[in-house]
Target: Core-2/I-branching beta-1,6-N-acetylglucosaminyltransferase family protein
Amino acid sequence: MFSTPFVLTFSLLLSLPILFFLAPRILPPKPHSLPISPSDELDDINLFNRAITLANSHATTNPSKFFHLSSKNPSLKIAFLFLTNTDLHFSPLWDLFFHDTPSNLFNIYIHADPSVNITRSLSPLFANKFIPSKRTFRASPTLISATRRLLATALLDDPSNAYFALLSQHCVPLHSFPYTYRSLLLSPTFDSSDPESSRIGIRLKYKSFIEIISHAPKLWKRYTSRGRYAMMPEIPFEHFRVGSQFFALTRRHALVVVKDRTLWRKFKIPCYRDEECYPEEHYFPTLLSMADPDGCTKYTLTRVNWTGTVNGHPYTYRPPEVSSELIIRLRQSNNSESYLFARKFTPDCLEPLMRIAKSVIFRD
Model:
């Protein structure tokens, strides 16, 4: 009959297909993104704690000045937070946007991936606004960390920062600075989704403009991209939200983001499925929806065209499409009087955008 070695070899060969079939079900899947390093995490915690300590000291001494917006306070500022991993292609357009604007109305902060060599020559307005930055990767929690870093830096830097607008290198303004400032800080009618805000002709509520969607395609797959029970018990599925990563947060909500430790422990877990994992689109809507749903508009002020999306990227506008008609169309909103920003534009759109900047974009 058969020798023992032959039987063993034959049995092993027969078992290989079974092992191949069962392995994915027995062994844990391998994450597709690297975890955030302990040193980067420690750097961030130290930064966040400094921002929290300073904010708490201001709250104790004069809470109305630092945490409550008032149309009677002309020194309130908008913090423009640029998150980039390339050159700031549209910095000349933003230079025009800020031109002749008093410096006591805005601040600029730039988080640039340190692995990228910024080659475009920047004006003094942008050149000295870079903050200490870490590597960022698409569809990974590093984008959450970078955004929190920008928020914490802006909180620390200037207690007059009242709104925090997150933008990318592909974002462009749709209006002048005066229009943008009035819309966020002064106009009692800008948020048309809240009729109570203009009841007596002044702004009664200041909300964060952040998209929060509770019903979206593949939401369950996004929720389980780290594992079926990875988000539990802190974040049950019914509390999981999705939305654009580009927002305009109030100072109060910026502090909520910087203070958070509980949800971050869940969202920093690497994903097993890249095609469903966009942490930056999940973390902020979920956190603020759980913390203060009534304090958020649930819509963003950055217009994005998701028609014909490719590999998770929105529609990208190219030079032949840039026109006054496009700008007017991009401004149109069902929730506010207008969108304030738009994306996504290719770098070579700069020239046609500059041609219509003064006559269209900044002519409100």
Notes: The first strand starts at residue 77 and ends at 84. The chain is about 40% helix and 10% strand.
